Amino acid sequence: MSKKSSTKLKQKGSIAGRLIYGQVISSDFFARHWLKVFAIFTVIMVFITNKYHCQTKMEEIRRLNTELEIVKTERMRVRSVYMSRTRESEMQQLVDSLGLNLHVQQRPPYKLPSR
After folding, report:
1. Are 19 and 25 contacting, i.e. CB atoms less than 8 angstroms apart?
2. Domain locations in the chain as residue ranges
3. Rounded distance between C-alpha atoms, residue 108 and residue 85, angstroms
4. Fewest CB atoms within 10 Å of the CB: 6, 70, 94, 111?
5. For residue 75, what pLDDT band results from cuts at 50, 70 and 90?
6. CA atoms of 47 and 37, how far apart (whole Å)
7. What Cα–Cα distance (Å) separates residue 67 from each residue in 59, 62, 72?
């Protein structure tokens, strides 16, 4: 009985040992299932490519968001400068410094009646 059980153990062996000696996955396995192996390999490669593409796009989105924040800040600064230049007192000082003899009208404008 011990002889039979020892031969069974030698025949079965461990899965790692069978993998090393090519008893589980051999060239015959790849010859019989080449289409399935190729399909699995293709799916794995597509997954890796998609993940890389997604990571590069996420990096670009982060970079563009940072650039957008910088542009928004610059826009607010330029708008502030523009608004300070268009104030009436600033414009009056500019006209006075140029010596144009223009003054702010005291009466509001009115429409001429049409005939």
Report:
1. yes
2. 15-95
3. 23
4. 111
5. very high
6. 15
7. 12, 9, 9
Fill in the amino acid letter for 80. Answer: S
d(CA 66, CA 87): 32
Query: Residue 18, Cβ neighbours under 10 Å: how many?
Result: 13
Tokens 């001429």 -> residue: 112
Listing DSSP states for 28-90 in one string gives HHHHHTHHHHHHHHHHHHHHHHHHHHHHHHHHHHHHHHHHHHHHHHHHHHHHHHHHHHHSHHH
Contacts of residue 84, defined as CB under 8 A and 6 or more positions apart, other chains included, come to 90
Q: Considering the entire predicted model, what is its pTM?
A: 0.49
Q: What are phi and psi of 3, to 5 degrees?
A: -70, -40
Length of the chain: 115
**Which residue type does 44 have?**
I
pLDDT at 4 over 60: no
Nearest to 101 by CA among 109, 114, 92: 92
